[in-house]
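Morning, I've got a small favour to ask if you have a moment. I owe you a coffee for this, so here goes:
>
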Amino acid sequence: MPEATTHTRTVEVPGGEVTLSWAAVTDVGRRREVNQDALLARYPLFIVADGMGGHIGGEIASARTIERLTAVAEKDAVSTKTIEKALSRAVEDIGKHPGATDEGTGTTVTGVFLDTSGDEPTWVTLNIGDSRVYLMRDESLMQITVDHSVVQELVSAGRLSPEEAENHPYGNVITRAVGPSESVTPDYVRLDVVDGDRFVICSDGLTKELTDYGILHFLLERPDPAEAVDAMLHAAVENGGRDNISIIVLTAAVSIAGDDDGDTAARPQTSETAVTPTDAADGTAPGDTAGSAPGDTAGSSPAAD
């Protein structure tokens, strides 16, 4: 089983600096023969892609998508515009590949980047599919992204309860993916940067095996990103490891020049989808702890595994 390493980078921002620490890991799990997940953990962009499709189709889709996004991160020119251009190119790459002939070939794309282009830094999360971004703030866990899945749509429409969703036969059916036929625009959420923020970016191989409470437990018990990632991976494998498992843990420490009282950076909410933590995917207030989200058992394939 792979072990993660913690990486750090300090970024100068107006009025101070933000120090990022992160670790990432991907594992085939116990039941799959091939790991169709791929990930990118390179400042300022942190992405998990969960491929789907027969034979090597999913592996192709996730790998090509990560390759295109890596090129954007290497140029340090990450924005919603450059991300969408990269995804369009990935769609072309997938369509041209001889192994991507299965109608179900595609990949989720989920992650977060630090945007320092404005007066104050902000996080921007992005999502296509049912991989997830969680944010731990003030010792509470919030699911920021909303699953693009049949089960989540049924729950949102009030036709299915969260309890019924956990074992629904359509749990593996997603409604949006990066595939070989057309470009798909991610959902974006913009958030203030707050000292102590911790993100978990993961494929559903993690959320099939760990509840939100379990994820929160490992974040609270292990401040070091590599230790948190390794603990979550081991727990997910021990709990069954039914799918490929990919996890990124990203932590931020904010330092304001000339400020010794612990205050953190903030900015008015503007552009894209502007939210506060109470507007997150599950509506959980900052003082609450989110339980298992409705799409907790959703898979990463357009058809049941």
